[in-house]
Specification:
This protein has a single domain, classed as Rossmann fold (3-Layer(aba) Sandwich). α4 links the parallel β4 and β5. It has about 120 residues and is α/β, with parallel strands linked by helices. Helix content is about 50%, strand content about 20%. It has five helices and five strands, in the order βαβαβαβαβα. The longest helix is centred in the first third of the chain and has 13 residues.
Length: about 120
């Protein structure tokens, strides 16, 4: 897999910073956002090959789904997306389908699991 530009959206500062480091260790450029506004602004400004999106962004369990709907409504480019959450697997899978992806990860995840999910979403 070539080097990618990855947008990470997670409102937990420690996890956000750690995931950015993991993504960079895997050889990719990463930009971390803590919420909806930052994510929308980054998508307006630049092109990303992949987005890793936490479902729970502070205001509710489906903020990630709401964000994707807002991105689409605004006509912003929506990169292939990996959904990330601590939700039970069946809820996580349903939310991923609602976004239009099959790639999802439960928190916490290993760098190997993250890399596998990133590859899988790009191969779809």
């Amino acid at each position: 897999m070539n080097s990618l530009r990855v947008l990470l959206v997670d409102d937990e500062p420690t996890l956000n910073a750690a995931m950015v480091l993991v993504i960079e260790t895997l050889g990719h450029a990463a930009h971390g956002c803590a919420g909806l506004d930052c994510c929308k602004e980054q998508l307006r400004l630049g092109r990303f090959d992949l987005m890793i999106l936490d479902l729970n962004l502070g205001d509710g369990p489906d903020d990630g789904v709401k964000l994707v709907n807002e991105i689409r409504a605004l006509g912003l480019p929506l990169p292939p997306t990996v959904v990330l959450s601590a939700q039970p697997p069946d809820e996580l899978a349903a939310a991923a389908r609602a976004i239009g992806t099959r790639a999802f990860l439960r928190k916490p995840c290993s760098s190997k699991e993250l890399h596998k999910a990133m590859r899988a979403v790009l191969e779809d």
